[in-house]
From TrEMBL:
Organism: Aegilops tauschii subsp. strangulata
Residue span, FBD domain: 211-285
Superkingdom as given in the UniProt entry: Eukaryota
Pfam families, per database record: FBD (PF08387), LRR_At5g56370 (PF24758)
Name of the molecule in the record: FBD domain-containing protein
Length: 308
């Protein structure tokens, strides 16, 4: 690898253990733009060495990384970081000083804390999951299902994906209040068998509105939708309160047999005639599998929306 490093544009390293002293003086990858590490045992020191040797690296993909308690990622050139089913020993992931980072994709990340510092161009984020105990983005802290404080916001993010075991409106509104310029929202019900009762449906105060619902949110996607009472109530909230939304898309769970009568009944329950945005169109698509809840198209940087 070290011998070929100066000529590589794309590298995929897997099923191995990388030593901490990974030939730091001689390792140099001046042309490498995309790096994938999968099923790799690696130390924090080795990650630092690898990244410092990559002078034009734009995409970093980490999958099933082992034996590292605190993973620190820092790079002046990275545009996308993707973590997939990554095992950190339930410790800490720190993404720090990444001035060009546009996407942070977290698929199946299981750790205590995710911390993101100095990412001024971050546009795409998620799926954020309650499996992560604490998520800190600059001065903004998300802790479990507790809504973050309203003193801080992130204006650069326009595509966000959230994962919940059920349609928890209070928690989601707390998150949305921190992303005032959000244009696309994905809500993924990650386990149809562990759905929680929806709470606080009528607590929304129009005198203290969520900014993105008033002027920015154009697309809402509900994945693994079953059309049950809680989910209808959740979706109806956005029908009534998202004032500029253009599309509300329902990716219907594959165990639900949908037909014209089913869709007609859903439209009746959702009371679409009373929608806040007269331009809004509701679309139902069948065959969504709960096994897809971690799917993110992260391999192609030219795709504007990796969750679509």
């Amino acid at each position: 690898m070290i011998r070929l490093a100066p000529t590589l544009l794309v590298a995929r390293i897997g099923m191995c253990k990388l030593p901490s002293d990974i030939a730091a003086p001689s390792l140099n990858s001046p042309l490498l733009r995309k790096l994938t590490l999968w099923l790799v045992s690696i130390s924090e020191e080795a990650i630092d060495v690898l990244l410092s040797a990559c002078h034009v690296l734009e995409a970093l993909f980490l999958q099933d990384i082992h034996d590292v308690g605190r993973l620190h990622i820092s790079s002046p050139t990275l545009r996308i970081i993707s973590f997939s089913a990554t095992l950190f020993g339930r410790e800490e992931l720190v993404v720090d000083d990444v001035p060009r980072l546009e996407r942070l994709l977290c698929r199946g990340v299981d750790c205590e804390t995710i911390q993101i510092n100095k990412a001024p161009k971050l546009k795409v984020l998620g799926p954020l999951s309650p499996h992560v105990s604490k998520i800190r983005i600059a001065n903004l802290v998300f802790q479990g299902r507790i809504p973050p404080s309203l003193g801080h916001s992130i204006c650069t993010v326009n595509i966000l994906a959230l994962k919940f075991s059920g349609p928890d409106l209070k928690a989601i509104l707390g998150v949305l209040s921190c992303f005032p310029c959000l244009e696309k929202l994905y809500v993924i019900v990650w386990d149809i068998y562990l759905k929680a009762k929806m709470k606080n449906l009528h607590q929304y105060d129009p005198l203290n509105p969520v900014k993105c619902l008033e002027s920015h949110l154009k697309v809402l996607v509900l994945k693994n939708y079953t059309g049950g009472e809680e989910e209808v109530g959740f979706a109806k909230f956005f029908v009534f309160n998202a004032r500029v939304v253009k599309e509300i898309n329902f990716a219907v769970c594959d165990r639900i047999a949908i037909d014209k009568n089913w869709m007609t009944d859903q439209l009746r329950l959702l009371q679409v005639e009373a929608r806040a945005s007269q331009d809004a169109r509701l679309k139902f698509r069948s065959g969504y599998s709960h096994l897809q809840t971690n799917y993110v198209n992260s391999s192609d940087l030219s795709i504007a929306d990796p969750f679509s």
